Amino acid sequence: MASSSVVTRFAPSPTGYLHIGGGRTALFNWLYARGRGGKFLLRIEDTDRERSTPEATAAILRGLTWLGLDWDGEVVSQFDRKDRHAEVAHEMLARGSAYKCFSTQEEIAAFRAASTDSYAVFRSPWRDADPATHPDGAPYVIRMKAPQTGETLIRDEVQGTVTVRNDTLDDMICLRSDGTPTYMLAVVVDDHDMGVTHVIRGDDHLNNAGRQQMIYDAMGWAIPVWAHIPLIHGSDGKKLSKRHGAVGVEEYQRMGYPAAGMRNYLTRLGWAHLDSEIFTTDQALQMFDLTGIGRAPARLDFKKLENTCGHHMGMADDAALLQELQAFLAVSQRDPLTGAQEALFLRGVYCVKDRAKTFPELLDKAQFMLASRPVVPDADSAKALDAVSRGILKSLTPQLQNAYWTKADLEAILTAESAAHGIGFGKLAAPLRAALAGRTATPSVYDMMLVLGRDETILRLEDAA
User: What is the pTM of this model?
Assistant: First the structure.
């Protein structure tokens, strides 16, 4: 198979937010297709009309967009294809690989009640019935004729070869009595019609693969490459839920994690390539393959996520970081940066981005750039602004007026001022931090002065003095 012929898909149900596990499944599909010059398709499985909502669909699209996962072509609605699904069900009926079943719900319930085996497979009395005996006008479903002997082999790129005994497969319903298709039929028809070559999905769908292969076989269609990936668990090893923290992709955006860091972390969550831990998206596209996916459930580790995001925050292009910061402010319903603040941010982000893991941390560390005069010092830094310190700041401002405003020149002036007052530089740095940033933990005094510029620096010192 040529690489360019690879087609993957992500097919979520729009019944809620985009789960972090779904985000990783979409990412794996995207990486596999894009890394091979193939196509990544998006299908919304909205056949459950009672639970599917436009709001959930919109949330899924927003989540994928934030993760940076673009898709090819239009988003496909499974519900809109229901006539095509019914057409295939009737084609299987004509081929003899499916049949009309007139058994009522009451008859099926009675069978199960009478059976001593709770796993007993319902065998419809209509499977081999003469069509002449079909009751006129009675409602019916269309069932597959499942093989009743032998085994079905699921050749999975992650799970290996999985064997299913055919006598455990029921004659599943493909078309309901109201003419609507079941999920099992719709998925196979859609994947075939969309040209999907690789089905990469959660291993909770592994049991479906054997039954879905029956439809491929009945229609004479090529079976796609299966790759069923383990689910994501919480740190306690249990199925991921709200008790473990955020589980929706958009929650992570609102918490301020950078998208590139999130992609890196999710790629590494259950997949490995040699000893690679921190990598760019371009590197991930080159490295990602199905053989690197493990069989054991991955565990969500927030400390590792933050560490990964911290690396990507430091690696980020400044303009791209500003753009994502503004997007974070929008989704978290905060005021955007003004034009003047943006200019200062771009000038000074170099001295803070290496020490932030999330956008709230970045904003906190960039506070000296974004604050407006007068800067009000917090309780700790205010202690540094005693009468002596204010006098030193006052005597310092005339010298700064004539400085060349380079680090070397500023360093010479501040060192000389410290010596003149018989104090170490640390004693001078404390009131400078209080005046420039209003706090004790800041970037270096020189970085702040260079970023703020001569006029703003002197005005802040005069305010404090």
Answer: 0.93
